[in-house]
Structure formats: C-alpha cells, structure tokens
Amino acid sequence: MKVLILAMLLGLSFAQHNPNTKHGRTSIVHLFEWRWADIAAECERYLGPNGFGGVQISPPSESIVVSNPWRPWWERYQPISYNLCSRSGNENELRDMITRCNNVGVNIYVDAVINHMCGAGGGEGRHSSCGTYFSANRKEFPSVPYTSWDFNDGKCRTGSGNIENYQDVNQVRNCRLVGLLDLSLEKDYVRGKVADYMNKLIDMGVAGFRVDACKHMWPGDLGAVYGRLHNLNTRWFSPGSRPFVFQEVIDLGGEPIKSSEYFGLGRVTEFKYGAKLGTVMRKWNGEKLSFLKNWGEGWGFMPSDKALVFVDNHDNQRGHGAGGASIVTFWDARLYKMAVGLMLAHPYGVTRVMSSFRWNRHIVNGKDQNDWMGPPSHGDGSTKPVPINPDSTCGDGWVCEHRWRQIRNMVIFRNVVNGQPFSNWWDNRSNQIAFGRGNRGFIVINNDDWDLDVTLSTGMPGGTYCDVISGQKDGGRCTGKQVQVGGDGRAHFRISNRDEDPFIAIHADSKL
Ligand code: AAO
Fold it and tell me: What residues does the Alpha-amylase C-terminal domain cover (predicted)?
C-alpha cells in the first residue's frame, strides 16, 4: 500500500515534467511580447506546419502600465490583478488563440507571475492594463482582492525591505525582489487566488506554465499551489494529464538556493547551459567545441529530465537576470545559429527557442542603456502586429529567430531524431565537432578559423541527403549542399570556415 501511494505521488508530481507536446514535437518557442492575435495566426500558418510543440507567451495577467514616456517590456512582470487583459490582448483574444493553437497541435504555456504584485513604488490609480484601480502605497489590489495582509513584509528582516543578500535564503524568499510587493504564499487565501488564476487558464486549454521567480518562493508553498491545479482540458489532452511546469530558478552555483530543491515540483530552467555554451562558442577562457563531448550532466548541469534549456532568454539577451556577456543572441547571428543548432541536435533537456524584438541596443561600460525598451509599438503604446514579409521573415522590428531557416530546420531535426541516443562523436581536439542521433540524424560544426575536411562515420543508412542548414529538401530536390553517405555509413564533409553557416545537418527525412 505504502509503495502504491508513493508511486502515485511520484507519478502525479513527475507528470508535471512532461511538456504534453503532440505528434512527437519537442521544442517550445518563446514569442516574447507577441499579441495573442498574431500568435494564433502564427500557430496556424507556421508553428503547426513546422513541428513546433508549443509557445511560451508573455504574462497574460493585468499589469501596471509604466510610461516614462515609453512603455518598458518589464511592466508585464508587475501584476495588478489576474484579469486576463494585457498588452497582448484581452480575454477573448487569449481564448481564441489558445483554441486555435490547440486545434493545430501547438501547446500554449503561460508565463505565470505569482511571486509578487507591482513595485512598492507603483503609486495608485488606474494606470493598469485593464484600467483596474490599485494602490501600491496601501498594498491594495481590490480586483483580486489582495490587501496588506496578503504580503510578506512582516517576515522580511532587511532595512530596505528588499532582497539585499542572495546568500541569505530567508531574505531571498521573504523580502521584495527589486522592490516588488512580495505575496505571502504561505497563506491559504493567497494560494487559493493564485491557483484560481492558473486553473482558469488550464480550463481555457493551456498546457502548462513557466513560473516566474521561483527562487523567491518556498518550494513547499509552490507544491501546495501546484497540488490544487486541475488536470488539462480533455478537449485537447488525454484524461489525467497534468500541467507542465517549468520553474525559473537562476542557479549558476555560488548561492545557497539550489535548483534541485524544485526538481520534485516540475522542470527547472538550466541557466548554466546558455552561459557555458556562449563561452564555448566565443572561445573564451580557453573553451573549445571539442570539450562538449560530455555536454549535459557531464558539465555539472542538472539531470536532463529536469532541465528546460535555451541559448538566451528575454532577460539575459539584454543584460537582465544572469549569464552575463557570454550569452549569444540574434545580435551575433552567425554564432547564434550554430549555438541553437547544437542545442537542438543534442539530446539534453527540453529545448526552448527565443523569438525576440529588436531594440536600439546602446552599450556603455558593459551596460545596455536601452535594456528597458518595449516591443515595437504605436504612438499610443499599443503593440504592433507582426507583419510577414514575402521571404517569410518578419517586419517592423520583430526578429523571428524561429523563422530563420537554419533554426526552423533544426527544430524539425530534433523531432525526427527524438528518442535516439547521442552517438558517433568526433572532434579535432579544437573547434570542429560532429555527432549523430542513432541512425536518424547527424550534425557537423566548424567553429575553427580553418576549413574542415574529413570523412566520418555518421551511423546513417547509405544514400544522398540534403543539408538542412544551407537549404532543405523541397519536393524531391535539394536547395542546399548534398551529402553522400556510403553503404558503410561513412560520409565526406567539407565546411569552409568562411561559409555563411559553417555547419551541416542531415536527418532521416532529408534523404533524397
Ligand atoms: C523593474 C525595474 C526595477 C524596479 C522594479 C520594481 O527594472 O528597477 O525596482 O521594476 O519597480 C523584470 C525586469 C526587472 C523589472 C521587473 C518588474 O528584469 O528589471 O524591475 O521585471 O517590472 C533575479 C530573479 C529572477 C528574475 C531576474 C530578473 O531571481 O527571478 O532577477 N527574473 C524574472 C523575470 C524577469 C522579471 C522578474 C523575474 C520579476 O524573468 O523578466 O524582472 O518578475 C543574481 C541572482 C538571480 C537574480 C540576478 C539578477 O544572478 O542569482 O537570482 O535574478 O542576480 O538580480 C552572476 C551570478 C548570478 C547573478 C548575476 C547577476 O551571473 O552568477 O547568480 O551575476 O548579479
């Protein structure tokens, strides 16, 4: 009996590690600051047809509106209520998006901001995305409602009321993160309000959550909230499916709070992944691609089945959060495509692709003066739609990394090789590497300053394959380089260090 109960508990909690993706799809794309109407269209015209598993959306809850004089992206991390109107659209548009994305097999994951409400200095009035009244001064959010009783301040022991020292666990979890009013999640009432918010979204059809700022919440409190969550909507998910949970915990080592405290509750963001990969791609500190032979747990990362990984996120692509200067982003497009390609080819973790908007980056002494800039918007502060150009790229300042051929084709690669082992590793002891995924896919990367010219065992059945980086299979034809794999699985590769994209990838579905 005890064993059975234990197995049930484990089953219940570990179910939250499963992204619930459909049709063998494996990757999530973060459509940062996109409008719900644009995401709905993108699911139907692009994400569904190209095998994307799901979308991480920006926080849908009502937030403060900060205009000084333009609206920063980060206002959405300051909730005012759990009403579902935000800069991305209203509740009807949100519901329409969830329905339409689900109908084409693309999941929606909500960025849930449940650690706090707006900043203590947020003033009072109706400067909020649904025009709801609040008072940060009196800690009153009548539309939830929360009152001053629902915040942690009594438990915080710092002079400022803010987190001053990340070495002190009590501060990190009971004080205000950058001045944000810290909710008291130990209170049953607060847990109930948060769970109601998340359950409303689950009932609307979302597949799970990115939970913001988990380091700043006690794991026991989070467990109590997750325990109240409904199963997923059976219109799109099999009965008994639990919401996928991936928790934002920044653990680069060096602080007492560890990612592992959250493993039992769901997956956790592995921030070491992008920080280290950036260092390797940039060849800083003597790092080389050849050192990636034991990439993953071998590098001191968390277990693969607990990890959510990414090359960059909405914070560290602009110097917020953690990771620092090594993080590779769309600003370094050539390195970025290689880094994302490598991540998607490698079996470690659940992968998330970033999709950004451009801003006027202006770095002075290592700090981006414009790190606050919000999405492309009209004069009245409303977010602009995402226009699609004839060549399938995006206009109006939307970068759409997920539409770059090299990245989109590697999202497909990951689906094709899903479940296959990491195999046939090769390196030149420098920055040329290759590896396969069983007999389903193979990737070769040249990040050295000289040509790669080598014959390798690919593990693939003999035949002619189309490289999905320089082009792709189009009907029966290949628009890129071709790779001949012999009956013995060996193939010859040549990659100039001056190629536009110095890497090649082939997979079972790119066979001609
Ligand atoms: C805004 C203003 C603030 C103002 C506040 C309230 O910018 O000046 O005080 O409003 O009025 C986002 C923005 C914030 C913004 C906030 C609310 O980034 O600028 O504040 O919205 O509008 C910590 C948290 C982590 C958090 C990250 C940004 O642990 O959870 O800070 N990320 C999430 C979201 C993020 C959002 C929030 C949370 C809030 O993704 O977009 O903020 O909802 C150390 C710690 C980390 C800590 C970082 C940064 O990292 O370990 O836990 O992240 O510091 O404070 C090395 C170390 C590494 C260290 C890093 C930086 O790399 O190895 O551990 O240095 O020191």
Answer: 423-511
